[in-house]
Hints:
350 residues; alpha+beta; 3 domains; 7-stranded antiparallel β-sheet; 5-stranded antiparallel β-sheet; 8 helices
Amino acid sequence: MFKNLIVYRIGEGWSASAPQLEAELxxxxxxxxxxxxxxxxxxxxxxxxKHAAMVxxxxxxxxxxxxxxxxxxxxxxxxxxxxxxxxxxEQQTGRKPGKKQTKELKEQALxxxxxxxxxxxxxxxxxISPKARLLVLDCGSQARADEVVTLxxxxxxxxxxxxxxxxxxxxxxxxxxxxxxxxxxxFSIDRECELKSPDEMKSVVRYARHPxxxxxxxxxxxxxxxxxxxxxxxxxRLSFVLTEALQLKKLAxxxxxxxxxxxxxxxxKTDKAEAFEADVAxxxxxxxxMIPDLLEALxxxxxxxxxxxxxxxxxxxxxxxxxxxxxxxGSAAPPKAPHPVADHAPxxxx
Length: 350
């Protein structure tokens, strides 16, 4: 169900129930683009069935789905049509359109072309863990996540979100793991990473399907290159690529995660509804345990915005702060020793 993850903390001021959330999302239901509308976005039924619930609740976890549609008009086509209109005006008036008029002609050309344009659709999964006060987006870029956050805050009164921050930046932590060859507790380092030089040369070294516990990799770290992406696996159950912005890419559940579900469904015909609920239960059940382990490996969640352990509501804005700026890898202190126990405090319980 999830391919990429960007994780937010939900402010303490918001405590809507699933039925309340359902009612709010129904007001912002997805409507396809009109003839001259370039982009449209709204909420749809996660199961893909008409008149089904807009908020699916499985095992205490809430799942939403945002649909977006865009009419795609290539820039070269708009430019060509703009030039055609400008040429007609020049022939009629004997005067070439100026900059301001050319801009208006470009808008006119786009409006003419939009009804003929093909539409492109895309969807984004949204997972809310009310007990853990987490909101997780399946987005591959921060720009896309900002769009989804803007629509969520607009639709849900009182909702405030802030990107999860950690005491140690991912870049510094990844430098330590690669430089010492010691992965954090519960994790292993896989065979993919990217290292960048912070100087003006911006040199980049990428490893794919290559062991990372080598002297060569350590020498790059010692020379000052900073890891921007490192592939990891959690408890031999879940693999992903951690980025310097604390985003998770290429999320993949290992076969062992599905063994129990496979044995349950063996010999029985699993319908679409059961398969959907199983997907939600398995993916959220694993992630709600992995996320706190990852935060612990990064020194714990930053309490910069908190008071006595309570998160202060963030500003209701799409301009959510970026991940902590990585310090120089050469001056990085080693990460805090993670707690050697697998279970976590009540806020993380699924």
